[in-house]
Amino acid sequence: MTKSEGIRPLKGPTTTPQSPAGTQPAAAGLTGIALVVVLTGYALSIVDASIVNVALTSISDDLHGGPAALELVVSGYGLTYALGLVLGGRLGDAFGRRRLYACGLAAFTLTSALCGAAPTIEFLVAARLLQGAAAAMLVPQVLATIQAATAGQARARAIGLYGATAALGMVVGQILGGLLVSLDVAGMGWRSVFAINVPIGVAALLAVRRVPATRAGARPGFDPVGTVLFGVTMVCVLAVVVAGPDLGWPLWLWALLVAAAVGAVALARTERALEARGGSPLLSPSVLSHPGMRRGLAAVVPFSAGFGAFLFVYALVAQGHFGFDGLASGAVLSPFAVAFFVVTLFTPRIAAALGGRIVTLGALVQGTGVLLLALVVRLGWPHPSLVLVCVGIAFFGVGAALTGPTLFRMILADVPSAQAGMGSGVLVTSQQMATALGATVGGTLYVSVAGALSTVSAAVCVLALLACFSVTVLVISLKLPDPG
User: How far is CA 241 from CA 134, 249, 254, in A?
Assistant: First the structure.
């Protein structure tokens, strides 16, 4: 990205309504270099969610970890990541987003080194938990900085690249992990999948001064009751999502959903009362009540759930039935990544022409890709055409590129700059939770149908579920406002 192509500074006064947290100081603008710096940290957090998957066998052989410990190596990162996102965003609003981003990136780089040097499986699990917490500190600052330092087409381009980074990161994690393990760089084996983060993280830290320093004009207060209630609610939900498939969905596990519902109700009442008294709630009810955020989040949930189910079940089919290794299965996903990246470059222009109907178009294209995949798999099993599979995956990527970044813009459009961190934390938390839920639901459906009927029937059933998710997004899109 050349300097002339960078994200231009925001000029003139903002018309965004102000919050009780105070007025946002004028940002210096988000240059192309600054955008690359913040997206680098975000890319590392995304890649590390999947890069370890292809190294689990090597980790088990080296550190003698059992299935439960290996599950924690994968899910432990996601747990602390999802738990800390809202708090991380709120801390960025209070203490400065660049400062929190730098601290989070430094912690992520350090914990990556600890993961790579882990002498035991217990040490690796602990380091992964800390790595997820570090990612939760840095990730909300990325969207919050974009929200506070850009506007109009500049913001649309930046959020489009943010979405492309997420999509590319998930695919690159699969490909890069398989490549590093197979090459056995410097005899490091699986440790290289963590060690690679260190030089990249250090390079980004050296350039972090190029990122504009933004924060709320008045430091928001701390909300201990809301933080505890939010944490309890999230832990209950995550425990069901993560542990359910392995434990066989025992009755006592479902009781956690009741506890989560009680916690959510108590959280809503506590936050409303605190905001009515002029306090600074962790989750501002007035901000969350905006139509753009409320309806946008309602669409993000099925969109992200479908994406999570697709990636998880694709890995099961590609590596389990077709015998692809991590590198090959990731390579087959490259049409998705390429299509997503290319389309995001034109998404702002398409959104300017279609307004909110760009999400409707995206849902239609994505649904078309899913139906094409279902048809190809059903008719071509057990050896479906790889070309047609790639075409279907590319359609899925085009639809995701039209939908995802546009929804992000809609959700954040009504969030005051002073609360951009909180809004970003809510958005990314919803996205992560829905992705994990989609993977769990899709994986459970696939395993259940495959056991009762056949693998091809299971794959088609999951694709039908994805089509239902696309239809849900399409219906919600009919009442979405134009992207801001």
Answer: 22, 10, 10
CB proximity list for 173: less than 8 A, separation 6 or greater = 46, 47, 48, 49, 50, 51, 53, 330
Q: Tell me the two tokens of residue 314.
A: 């694709």
Structure tokens belonging to residue 352 = 């300017």
pTM listed for this prediction = 0.84
- Nearest by Cα to 298 from 455, 128, 472: 472
Q: How far is CA 320 from the centre of its chain?
A: 25
Dihedral (CA of 7, 13, 19, 22) sign:
positive
Site of tokens 């699969």: 174
166 within 8 A of 46, measured Cβ to Cβ? yes
d(C-alpha 141, C-alpha 143), whole Å: 6
d(CA 311, CA 22) in angstroms, rounded, equals 41
For 155-224, the DSSP string reads HHHHHHHHHHHHHHHHHHHHHHHHHHHHHTGGG-GGGHHHHTHHHHHHHHHHTGGGS-----SSPPPP-H
Burial 264-274 (b: 16+ CB within 10 A, else e): bebbeebbeeb
- Residues of the chain short of pLDDT 50, as ranges, are 1-27
Q: CA-CA distance, 415 to 483, in Å (whole number)?
A: 13
Q: What is the pLDDT of residue 280?
A: 84
Q: How far is CA 222 from the centre of its chain?
A: 26
Note the pLDDT of residue 327.
66
Closest CA to 436 of 82, 192, 173: 82
Locate 128 and state its tokens.
């992964």
Q: What are the Cα distances from residue 214, in Å, to 141, 240, 399?
A: 10, 37, 33
Other residues' Cβ atoms within 10 Å of the Cβ of residue 76: 21
